[in-house]
């Protein structure tokens, strides 16, 4: 069966604390229903698309919720939250799987600066690193965790947001398949689409934003060891062990690039 994986990214404003990537995996036929329900819910409030940054700041499509006549405080924020919760519910009732990838920028920068050859073997672009490892983890989910339909091998193809770096990320994907021939056997193509026009990419944005939010909340509460990425006081427990504020029935795992993870990535380049 063919699975389509939609990927998007999220980060703090200056990309100083964390860069995150999120993926939503679903069988090819599942996405049509999600698109229909998603667009119907957006149109109910007059929005054309969902984007997490605009939700949090009530800008862009969410600016309408600042209307003090139609939405006197706190009605605007409540209406925006209700919309996001309804979109979350659409994913919750759909047979899709969410995977997140978090790169804490402090230890990522330190690792590249201090470990021999790390600056040559690990990209200076953290999103590039996040996406590659996210693809690898999605490949494992589709290959090893989802039972094949009538004995047929599961395959997956990727869809990413169309950005000025799209061509470079496509080249990175081609290189990723060359370096991972076992995984490449189930990997299809990669295309780049406008997230404003495609609800599955907006869903991936929600997964990326959730991953970023979880890390920042724990970091700001002093609950994350930035050297290891571990939650302080919870030996050998990582972010997947925390209670998710949303996407509970969707999220399969959220991975953190802690120091041991980066060592494994570095050694795999030899």
Considering the chains and any ligands shown, give keywords for the structure.
270 residues, 6 strands, globular, six-stranded mixed beta sheet, Nucleotidyltransferase, domain 5
Write structural notes for this entry.
With 270 residues, this protein is of the alpha/beta class. It has a single domain (2-30, 96-268), classed as Nucleotidyltransferase, domain 5 (2-Layer Sandwich). Helix content is 45%, strand content 18%. It has helices at 31-44, 52-57, 75-92, 105-114, 118-121, 126-145, 166-179, 181-184, 199-220, 259-268; strands at residues 2-11, 18-27, 96-104, 155-161, 187-193, 251-256. The longest helix is centred in the C-terminal third of the chain and has 22 residues, at 199-220. It is globular.
In short:
With 270 residues, the protein is of the alpha/beta class.
Lay out the secondary structure.
Layout: E1 2-11, E2 18-27, H1 31-44, H2 52-57, H3 75-92, E3 96-104, H4 105-114, H5 118-121, H6 126-145, E4 155-161, H7 166-179, H8 181-184, E5 187-193, H9 199-220, E6 251-256, H10 259-268
Parallel strand pairs: 1-4, 3-6, 4-5
Antiparallel strand pairs: 1-2, 2-3
Helix pairs in contact: 1-3
The counted number of beta strands is 6
Shape: globular
Order of helices and strands: EEHHHEHHHEHHEHEH
List segments where confidence is low: pLDDT < 50 over at least 5 consecutive residues: 231-240
Radius of gyration: 19 Å
Question: What is the strand arrangement across the widest sheet?
Answer: 5-4-1-2-3-6
* Major sheet size, sense and barrel closure: 6 strands, mixed
Tally of individual domains: 1
Q: What is the architecture at the second tier of CATH?
A: 2-Layer Sandwich
CATH C-level: Alpha Beta
Tell me the β content. Answer: 15-25%
CATH superfamily: Ribonuclease H-like superfamily/Ribonuclease H
- The number of helical runs is 10
Helix content: 40-55%
Mean pLDDT: 88
If you consult CATH, what is the topology? Answer: Nucleotidyltransferase, domain 5
Structural class comes to: alpha/beta
